[in-house]
Design a protein that fits this description.
single chain; about 210 residues; mainly beta; Jelly Rolls; 9-stranded antiparallel β-sheet
């Protein structure tokens, strides 16, 4: 086959595949505007005594400075969706830190430290493992965690990693780290706001997006 024909075929293939790819990306809608906390609220263990810079917007990111315990959460409630976000732990950390944080999904009121919710762990060591916060001992819940897959998917802590959590309307949860499935679970909770924890570590979040599955 002549080189010119090969080139034309490659161009045609690109034109065919690009619209589908772009359409898939458009399905995810930003829920953090990169400028301020519009649509979000913060909750701290120590309430109004906390310096506002503990969780602050800077350089298009939400930056947690590691000096407070709390979380920022969406005002909106979500059900049957995928939430995707990027995160990293800067090299400079507080003296004593386990590089700990977490994504909270299906948050239930009242807000407190910590509210009833499901936590796809954001701690670096076991990122993606599921925890069920505030559940009764006899509550029906289940989870799996693939530690081998998690270790292979995990990038260095100071590089940007991307986590994607699928929270379906039937209560099932799937967690993917950099595109790799690392945990699954199911519980009684099916909807609620989402939130991100501050737990004594510096961590940055960006590109927080949600895709509706309805």
């Amino acid at each position: 086959m002549k080189p010119t024909r090969i080139f034309l075929l490659l161009v045609a293939a690109t034109l065919v595949t690009l619209p589908a790819s772009r359409a898939a990306d458009k399905d995810f809608q930003p829920v953090f505007n990169g400028k301020d906390f519009t649509g979000w609220k913060t909750f701290y263990k120590d309430g109004d005594k906390v310096d506002p810079s503990a969780i602050a917007v800077k350089d298009g990111e939400v930056q947690v400075n590691g000096k407070a315990v709390g979380y920022f959460h969406s005002e909106k409630s979500f059900k049957n969706y995928i939430v995707r976000y990027s995160w990293r732990y800067p090299k400079e950390q507080p003296e004593k830190t386990s590089m700990n944080s977490g994504l909270l999904v299906h948050i239930q009121e009242p807000h407190k430290i910590w509210p009833k919710s499901i936590e796809p762990q954001a701690r670096y060591a076991d990122h993606g493992k599921l925890f069920f916060i505030g559940f009764d001992k006899d509550a029906k819940k289940e989870s799996t965690y693939d530690e081998v897959a998690q270790k292979k998917a995990l990038k260095p802590s100071d590089e940007w990693n991307t986590t994607e959590v699928t929270a379906k309307g039937d209560g099932t949860i799937e967690v993917r780290l950099n595109g790799v499935l690392v945990s699954t679970g199911k519980s009684e909770l099916t909807s609620g706001p989402i939130g991100f924890q501050a737990e004594g570590a510096r961590i940055h979040f960006k590109d927080i997006q949600v895709k509706s599955l309805d």
